[in-house]
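HUMAN:
Just now I want nothing more than another pair of eyes on a protein record. I would be glad if you read both lines and explained how they fit together. I have put the entry right below:
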Amino acid sequence: MRGAHCVVKRLRALAQQRYFTEAALAVWLFCSLSGAAAQGQTSAQGDGQHAAKYASAYNWIQSPAMPPALVAGANTITLRPCPRGLRVADPPGLVSRVAPHEYVYVAGTGEPEAALIAGGGGHAGEASCTIDVTLKQPHPAGYSAGSATGGIKEASEDAMFLAESYGGGVRRRQGGMVVLDTAGSPYKIHAPIYIEASNQLISGAGGTIDCYLLDEDCMEVGDSNANHYGSIQLEHLRFHPNMVGGTNSALYVNANATIVRDVTVLYSSTHATFGHLVTVCDDQAFTLDGLNYGGVGLRNDAKFVGSVVFAPGPFNKCSAVGWLKNMQISGQGTGNGIDWQSGNSLHVSDSVIQGFSQFGIRTGTMRGGYSPTQIDNVYMELNTPMNPAGNIGAAGIIVVGSRLSAKTEMVAVGGQPSYARTGSTHYVYWIVARDSTRGSSLPLQSGYADTNGKGNIIVSWPKINGEKINGEKINGEKTNGEKINGETISYDVLRTEGVGNALKAPYGKGDFAVATSVPQCAGEVCQATDSQVPLKTYEVTKNPSFQPILMFWPGSLILSGGAYADLVIPPVTNVSPVISTLANVPSVFADRCPRGTPGVYAVCFAGESAGNNQPRVLGTLMQNGPGSGAPDPNVKGRLNFLNSPAGNLGPSHIITLVDSDPAKTLADAIHRPSNDDKDAYIGLDVPAGGASLSQSQLAFGAPISLSNYIGNKGDGTRWKERLTASEKTFAVAVSIQKGNTLTVGEGSPLSRMKIYSTPGIAASNVAAQSCRDVTQTEPGLSKSDLITGIKPPKPLGNLSLNAYASAADTLTLHFCNPTTSSVGIPSGVYSFLSVH
């Protein structure tokens, strides 16, 4: 009854937790053994073969008599009895696929050391067995041999049982539950704990894992091949480092479908460290559900900064896929959050990542791969950046070469470095990286200074190595070992002023340059001095050809290697901008943009002005061509107001440029009320009865006037054409192309008006009281042309003059003399106006 009561009680408790279904079996096993645990946990077998195994009962130690002493090199040690869980050889009747990794700890005499058991004879639980080990040091008589893992590995081996094959072929040892009970805590670990047992559950249950390893990982799930083991679960693990300067991982995972719940690292009074808390190699269905990191136990110095969760890659070797959730990462300036370089999918949700040293999340395809990263409901916070590398700030999220999807508003917070705090003038600094073969980059915002205008300002930024991706290592070496030859990096340091949406990135030609051609830095931090003298003229290229890989850069969201982001809101503050190396094409796609992204091509579908805080609401850009060159010709527009193929047209406004009655529009349920005469719009001017799609008529409307400008931004005066309710005014010459006519009022259509000039006419006389015709050839003249506006070369005196087209290409000048004496015709060129 007491066991049944335990089950009911524990199940009720777990029913309120998220682990109920996954932990139900573990709860039953744990409760079924509670009686045995209360009596001292002296039997690892409990009441049956499949009972939970308590690690404390497996922490064996012996003083072997054979051999009396151990030598440096190969040794065979006889153990009496053979400890339970010691897998010297495969159990009777079972041939294993892979050899286990089990270690013995030799101490007592000589330098203590752990050695891998390479073979031997006998089986666990027998009266005796032998183990074969290779030692680094000799150990004189009186040595001891014991578990190198505090009994945890032995308990894991003994917990397994032969599972039913269910028609699947060979029965294999797997499963079981291991409890790291407090009776054996702290568990002193002198060699990696390999958990090589599919479908097994390891429960911390209050025990502490005390790691005495410097370079080797403390606990390893699986072995060198992730396909050997799967579905291993670990919960409530507490790791404690004991080696100063350690760069190993507390937990290393290389088995498929591993689930880790509630893992943490404990404070070390000696400031011992791990390199990383959790490292994931090739588990392509990894789940981390619950983690607590409070800024202790990870190495954090100028030479090495560890991460709480690390997926090292490269793709196709360590291609981890991860779901990380319910994490509390509060680094207090020690360590980074998540470093996911596997090139495979990452999903982070329902977590807090704050107080990191260099970055909150780094992810992407920097080591191969193609999969995106998704972030949901993640809170990120950073106060003052405490980067041990130098005054180069911190990054919220770094994405290299892949896509980030973030369905949360506070997706990333970083911090750019402050270079000076002496006054109120706000400088913003930008770095242009120049590659000797690939050209220059966009200006990359790097930091700021609040200055009084006096003295030197030291500007610092992270070194850019000119790395490449897609098969090339990030350290600047190709995968075949050949250096990327002939490339050197230099820098131009630029400066602008402005805060918030008043800040502009350097563009075009202007006074921007603090320093140019700054050589590549020897260390990881580059520097230049701004002496605050007048800036030099500098021209920013319109087509940057160098897109550097930024493994680190300060800011909220850092995009490089062609990376782009789908966001709700761009994560921008005055000291935490979005940085992108992608030039002339969008890299940020956001639902709403309350803050700007100077120098970064962002597509935002909505702006924001709460009250009057931002009268200049952010613009919406629509890409309409490639990064350079021309788009495909003769294609339909990006913005296409598409009607149904079976539909018709009606008179309507398609785009309302100025709503003359916005209150009316806002009051309408769908914000599309009837249009108004005083709206400014682009629309359709089709009959009220409608028209087919092939009979559309375009309309432009405005309440006062429609003006056309050429080479003018629009100043209200220097228009070239204007239509008002009373007149159409032209401020340019009007030309009617050949074959077209002009009709004024009810007059005749005019198709040509041209001024002609005759060849020189010779002087002659018109007799008294008579007329005389002078004929000239005029190419292009038509017989039906009307001739007017005749201008003689000199005054005609008493002569009168008319002209007409007497034939095609022929002009007749008709001179008449009404006087009683002869009058001379002036010689020279006659001009006239021909109207057709």
